[in-house]
Design a protein that fits this description.
three-stranded antiparallel β-sheet; 2 domains; mainly beta; 111 residues; two-stranded antiparallel sheet; 34% strand; elongated; 1 helix
Length: 111
């Protein structure tokens, strides 16, 4: 099965449709068939960097789907087209949440 992201006039993904393999690699044909703006996507990220969901945007310059930005301090990784914190996530196996005010990862505690 092929997957196509439906886009609004601003390039925001409004949904993802699973369609016949007949349309695989035939984006323009699917746009005409479905009477809308669509971009093909894939679960494995081989097409357009990331598998989109509602709220992602399609960036035509990068030919990639970009998720919504998590926090104002995060920056876009141009290789992955994903947002990254200014500080790397700790690698100690613990769970952390991002604190935008302090711009630090904060250990999750279960009290």
């Amino acid at each position: 099965m092929a997957h196509f992201a439906r886009l609004d006039t601003f390039g925001t993904v409004t949904g993802v449709e699973v369609v016949s393999d007949f349309f695989d690699g035939r984006e323009l044909d699917y746009c005409n068939h479905a009477n809308g703006s669509y971009r093909q996507c894939s679960y494995n990220g081989k097409i357009r960097k990331n598998f989109p969901s509602q709220g992602y945007t399609y960036d035509a310059t990068r030919d990639a789907f970009i998720p919504p930005k998590d926090y104002p301090s995060w920056t876009l990784n141009e290789d992955t087209c994903r947002w990254e914190a200014p500080v790397a996530y700790p690698s100690d196996g613990e769970a952390y949440n991002w604190d935008e005010e302090t711009k630090k990862w904060v250990l999750v505690t279960f009290d």
